[in-house]
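As a representative case, the lines below give one protein's residues and fold tokens.
***
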Amino acid sequence: MTEVLSQAEIDALLDAISSGEMNAEELKKEEMERKVKSYDFKRALRFSKDQIRTLTRIHENYARLLTTYFSAQLRTFVQISVASVDQLPYEEFIRSIPKMTILNIFEAEPLEGRMVMEINPNIAYAMLERLLGGQGVAPNKVGALTEIETTIMERIFSRALYNFAEAWKTVIEIEPELDLLEVNPQFMQIVSPNETVAVISFSTKIGETTGMINLCLPHVVLEPLMVKLSAHYWLSTQKKVRNEHEMQILEERVRTAKLPVIAELGTSAISVGEFLHLTVGDVIQLEQRTEDMVKVRVGQKTKYLARPGTSRGRAAVSIENVLEEEVEEDE
């Protein structure tokens, strides 16, 4: 990861240059020299930048879904957004989380292996207090969960996994299921310590309480999907899904479109003068005979041949023949 200096470090660097403790020309010379970058094999980079960007897009959508879900469940202001997406050894992830926290260990068939959603105690207990009728303020001291509190936690986070499946459906159809709720990271060993994991950190705010939700996805679990996590595949899949959705909408609209269906008893040709002098009681002789079948038009095309009659006291036609090809009427 690229190191970003804090404001204090920037101020200290500028002071050192101003006081003469550090020479700017030497810094430029050092920058121009060829640098050798050390590689730590324990921190093997298994995810490409392209795949990290795809994971970011997927979980930005997941963050929006979680915001909607928790807002409805807690009935208070909830804001969740992706803070970072990193890859690091599993052992380092375990060391980075509190000694007492909420760990939701889950599986997602057809993927093989387990994943973890870690909820910072401030956020977890604020949710718990809100669900039990409180204001949603995190307690000063975090203790062990009671059986009732554990059941409530399992219920709310099990439902949150439904949104996880929704966020991933553009890549794969999965069925996440909560396997275990743990509070001590030392008792959670889902992969080997040196296994690379993708850690998606969500910045979370519930009312006035802030904290982090971390999603740990081991590389060994996502390995069958690595090809699908490329931007080219992901975008082409998105386009395919969008096209299929548009085709479904178009098909539904075509099915519900209304077309004029006209049964034509016969035709006749008269002059304009004869038309102008028509009066009540005049008879117009048709060119068709009574035994001829009636042409049935759908729109401007003749599609059926039928015989006239009545049905329940109303004029009707009985379809006798379906024309294999559309027949255009002569103008």
Notes: The radius of gyration is 36 Å. Strands lie at 78-89, 102-109, 114-119, 175-182, 196-206, 209-218, 261-264, 294-298, 301-311, 314-328. The CA atoms of residues 58 and 233 lie 13 Å apart.
